[in-house]
Amino acid sequence: MRKKISLLLIGLLCMTAVTGCSMSDDASANTEQDHVIRIGYQKNGPLIILKSLGTLEERLDSLGYTVEWKEFQAGPALVEALNAGSIDFGRTGNSPVIFAQAAGTPFVIVAAGKSKFAGSGILVPKDSDIKTVADLKNKTVSFAKGSSSHYLIAKALENSSLQYTDITPAFLTPGDARIAFEQGDVDAMVVWDPYTASTELFSNASLLVNGEGITTDRDFFITNDQFAENHADLIDVVMEEIKNSSDWSNNNHEELVAMLAPILNIEEEAIKKAVERRIYGVDPISEEIIQEQQEIADTFYRLNIIPKKINVADVMQEQSK
Questions:
Q1: One CATH from 3.40.50.720, 3.40.190.10, 3.10.20.30, 3.30.450.180 for 37-116+218-315
Q2: What share of the chain is helix, strand, coil (3-state, %, to 5)?
């Protein structure tokens, strides 16, 4: 009996030790995770510049944090990752956040990028009989579904007294759209820089209209609700470094072109054209920006592109002046 009791006590002690080690390992893992900020980025965006410069890592290292970068091909996928909890912070265009809010995704918009309307537009072949937006009636037009280009074409048609149903949409990524455009499978394509610039320069294309008077085509910096609540100080640090990297970009075009060309695998001439017609930077959320976004949401709802009416101010952190 004593032997059995002794064996039982030894067994319990071993189980306690194993459990203790497991809890210790879990606690260690949780502590490590608490000191990592996971950032979602796209190759064509201000966060790739920040990542390439490496300044955020230096800043956060002094605070005891590390950065984990996760690349996404498109804004909708990035927002979904935010919803799933696999990233804490990211940047996307003006339309993916509208679709995400309409789908009930919990997130907060903490800041906006500068307008980049000059590099977003509708492209047609140089020898096309399409001379105005009104000429797009009954034509096939390519654009990425749920992207900033989705809104640009919808609003451009509306401004020209056409219906969204007056065109045949071809939902294509910029790369696939370029191929379809060059092969004559679509009559026009709607896209953003540097794809706009590359198509203008190397695919015998003309810019029918850019975004002026149609859309500001801003970037938006987003985070999930919980991270915004628990790590406002970290978000401030990230935004400060985004501003710093934007200033660097505006003042170092030659170095910026050399940085981006191999990352994007796009001609340096196209990158140069793209960076020279935009200003990098960050704007605080203002009533004007809220109104811009509300117009996008209302347009998509009116066209039955999103399922319900939304109030964009619900996810935007307006900052005092």
A1: 3.40.190.10
A2: 55, 15, 30
